[in-house]
Amino acid sequence: MTFFHSFFGIRSRGFQRGLPWLGMMALIAGCGDKPAGGPGAHGGMPPAQVSVITVEKRDVPVRYEYVAQTAGYREVEVRARVTGILHQRSYREGTAVSKGQALFIIDPAPFQVALAKAEADLAAAEVRLAQAKREQARLKPVLEARAISQKDMDDAVSAEQVAGADAQGARARVNEARLNLSYTRVESPIAGIAGRAVVSEGALISGPNVLLTSVTQTDPMYVIFGVPDREFLALRRDVDLGRLKLPADRRFQATLKLSDGTLHDGMGALNFTDVRVNSQTGTSESRAEFSNKNNRLRAGEFVRIVLDGAVRPEAIVVPQRAVLESPKGKFVYVLSADNKAEARPVEAGEWSNDGWVINSGLKPGERVITDGVMKIGPGAPVQIAAPPAAPAPAGNAPDAKK
Fold this sequence. Notes:
Structural class: alpha+beta
Helix content: 25-40%
CATH topology of the domain at 49-60 and 315-384: conserved putative lor/sdh protein from methanococcus maripaludis s2 fold
């Protein structure tokens, strides 16, 4: 009665012109009734509709992707070996050059004069050597006749030996002068693309200290990238635990994504991994080699390299939507034998297409809830939803031919 007095006391003004008292009480009593067969008749909501997958093991290919930068297969700096005035540039900048092609000409006149002087000195030295030999030959029979002393003969032999050494030195200076003259023709040490000329005609070239240009061999092309130390340690740990199988000799198959999103023609191969870790970037440098016959790749551009060939043997993969996050880590809902949702902590690895690789926490044959996880909680009863019916072909529709 207290409830009804309070109710009528609050809402009396609203019913002053309404139903009589008895009708009002019947209305209130009617409002309290619950329709038979409704949700409340069974004491709660029906089980949530969910979708499940059965856990199974399978080999999962692993793909790694990194930011990388291209570099020439060989990149050389072209420098002169002698000092002189730059007389001529003999190539077109930015074009292909062959090995041994002249790129620059240093004024050869001073070196031609030096060669002529060295050849004259050699000629004089050879004359003195010939004279010493004749002198020794002339004194030999005189010594046998005891007409001269042994000292005179020894002096003649020494004179011949000194003249021979002088001739040998003069011959070396001729070779040096001839070599310096040949160095006035600065040649490309490799075949490749010649860069911009750093100096122009008339400049004084002080030997190897001055860079003239550079030549880059662009076919094949190197692609250099860094593997984070943390990821490298995780990879090595997975290999030791048998979770990951690397390709033979660790020669990953590599593909390139260019800056515009297109793929580079042809496959590459990983051929070098540094054992050192860069203290500034925390990465280990690796390198792959790609064919570049059409010169589509240019040295120094940024690309993305994708490595294939590794496999996770007998791995468990669940869809991304099935893995949830809690303060204690990742977990999934597993369907129990009595059709209830059981929260199961899992250790998730890396991505595999659109799913998580589960390192631990699940066994083959268990059923993981994939859809409807936001409507349930631990221990909640669930019901497996029927898969959607496939649409009938257009030719089998009742009015398809009308």
